[in-house]
Fold this protein.
Amino acid sequence: MTGEGAVAGSVIAQRETAGCTWTVPALLRWLSGSAPLVPALSPGAGWRALADRCDALRVLPQAMLRLASEPGSIPASDVAEFSARQIQATVKVGRALHFGCRALSSLRDSGIAAAGFKGIAAVGRLHGGQPSRGLGDVDILVPASQAARALDVLQAAGYRPKVTSLGVAESIAFARTSPGSAGNESISLVTDEGIEVDLHWRLGAFDVDAAVTEASPVRVLGAAVPLVRPAMGLLLSAHHALRNDFVPDEVIRDMLDAGGWFRLLQADPAEAAWVDLEARRVGLDAACDACAAVLADIGLKSGRGAPQRGTPAHALAELFSSQVSRPVNTDLVYLCSVRPSLVLLSGLLRSGRGYLRAMRAVEHAHGESQVPIGTRLARLMADAWSLPWQRWRQLRALAAAKDRVGSSRHKLRDADRGAW
Amino acid sequence: MTPVILMLTPVMPSPTGGGSPMRAAAILECLARIGRVVVVHLECWGGTPEVADRSWCRERASAIAVVQTRRLADMVSIAADALAAAGMGDRVDAMYVFRQIVAPSGLACRERFAPRVSVLDLDDDEVQLDRFLASLRRERGDAEGAAALAAGMERRQAKRAILLERFDRVFLSNPADVTSLQRAHPSVQIGFLPNVVARARAASHVAIDPYRMLFLGTLAYLPNEDGVAWFIREVLPLVRASQAGMRLRVAGVGQPQSLMPMLSHDGVDFAGEVPEVAPEYAAAGMLVVPLRAGSGTRIKILESFRHGTAVVSTTVGAAGLDVADGEQLLIADSPEAIAQCCLRLARDAALRQSLAARAAEWVERHHSLDVMHGIIETALRPIGAAPE
């Protein structure tokens, strides 16, 4: 319960209060260029409100680019303010990329194979290496056998652990037993400038060693850095969407990226075929198909057929759509599967109060709300009572898909574990 | 009798090209209104670039002599030959020495021809410039070059102190330089001679591309080289990530090795030497002046004002010009702020037009040829002016 699956419904709530109807699907259509902005900008719902909304969704750079490309969307009197805000957003992303590239260079110089993935990979492969995609942090992948050394190298280069109240070993141990981690193992590092770089060495059932080996150099901000292959880019977008429970406000960036990855793969049938194989192997086929279905709904072609009614992919796509108007309490997923509870229990049995302390420390470092466990349980029971049965079906599909990814068939080798 | 004026210059006067040839050209234009001018071009800064308009100089000067570096020792006799060839014998009423580097030759001519008035036009404060250049070189890791410049600075300062006393009048193009130099040399008559640019002919057949950012200048000049590299490295990525289609066009003489790889970056178009600047200005949405070091004033800003092209400059770039941010141009110093200014200009045609209109009016009032002519005429008053 590190908050990976926590519902971030506040943005939607604010939007509804303001009477604005820029839903995530409408924004997806607009940002991906498949349709104009609905409703169009008007004096009552000007570009500032749209920018605020997109900022909250972490797609501000994309939105600003889109606005800039639409003649007349910015009144002449607002051009200076608009340009300033756009540059601020670009600088923020540029700074994160700069430190991400620097971290990758430090690892390379120390002889450690590494690859950028998620945001930085999308920037490199889908945005021409320009800081025109929203980016909160930079994710770097290293083989598990190299993780300890990679951490040393990055710490020596000025990247320090984000969770200060826990030791590095405690943070890593907690990551292994956190139900929200979904089979991921990583540590968040920050620079003195506040830029976050997440070092990962395990990603669900993915073969991390292969992902790093198959990475290739791509120019980001003018410098060539190793980034995961496009097929991995798509799978990791689907993986992230799944980890975030297909909550529209949380996964809009994943959907935009997925649209880009699908476009790239359509031009490379071999890579697209590899995606199908690998998605099945790592248990992400339903999530990938669900992404394709969401994109099809907004008018983007993915090259994949629509999922059949009753399939997990269909249920996940429905979950996305149903949460547009009303987000679900994703803690309910824990009622659909025993696996998270077992993971949680094993953590508690191993470390007792230390586990709860680690959970609070991690939640605090990530700025997540620390609702008392009693309140959380009471809310869970109330939501469980009132949830329509169709939603239960969607949540069961979500829990099953998460279980498949979390129950890694690509176990860490003992030698890799020993590296810590 | 029409006064005879001897003009010594390290650059061939040319109304286009770099800042120094343009200032020399404006001076020649003014001197030609006062008397008959014999131009002696001492090639201590190299020969005349291809882009220079040689016929322009010939039309205004009674004679032109070019002194190659290996013949600098014979410079006085070459000047005498040029005067004789123009039918002026040995008579020189006034001498105008452009830039400190040729001032020693000016003193030699003064001994031989004994003009009634001798003027030294320093253009910019070269000692101050060396200070900036040394810091630039240090920043670029060239400690040896920086040290060599610093060592030469003292020598140049001492030499300048000796030279200044021997001229009747000294000019600089930046009022701040005038003040600081006057403080250091209270007995010398030091004055402000602004850079000027003649009215431009519009290239009406060229359509404006608001997303085109133009850099125009001598690329072999270190402050320009550094400014362009800095802009490409720090500003251009921000601009291009924010507005698809924004491009930097770099035009100018010189191809410094350190800059060439950067000129092939995405979003950069390298034009090199251009025969005419009017179409460049007409097609650009803005001129960018991303200088981080320099002295004197940027004649390219004035030229851009004349051509009606909006300008984004750093504070250093706009130094010496009595302009204000948001009035005649936009001034910004951080990469973010410069990028914002570029985007504003690209997106706001009304802003471009209003800045250009105010800039055109301002440049006509403060930096027209008439203003320069008035100042030079006053300085040369003892020799009397020729009838127009």
